[in-house]
Amino acid sequence: MNDDLPFLDLNEDRKLVFVSFGGENMHLPEGANLAAALLGTGVLTFRNSAISGAPRGPFCMMGACYDCRVKVAGETVQACMTIVRAGMVVEQADG
Ligand code: FES
Question: 80 CA distance to ligand 1 centroid (A)?
Fold first, then answer.
């Protein structure tokens, strides 16, 4: 878990690594907060509500709301509690 302020990670001079999100290739800063890095590329929908179908994205950025859920290599995780690693395959979470 990364306890640093998530958006400050994006300002650091980090190596960019390949990450796939929903089949789209992107380069994100290695070791940065995944939710912050995805938001920084313009990704706003991390999943859709199972009840209403409404788009959901990060809200609290501290592991409390679970609105940032995504799948990494098929496992559901909280993007705001996950760091960017080279070669990650990320997809929208179910519901
Ligand atoms: S943004 Fe709330 S748990 Fe990740």
Answer: 5
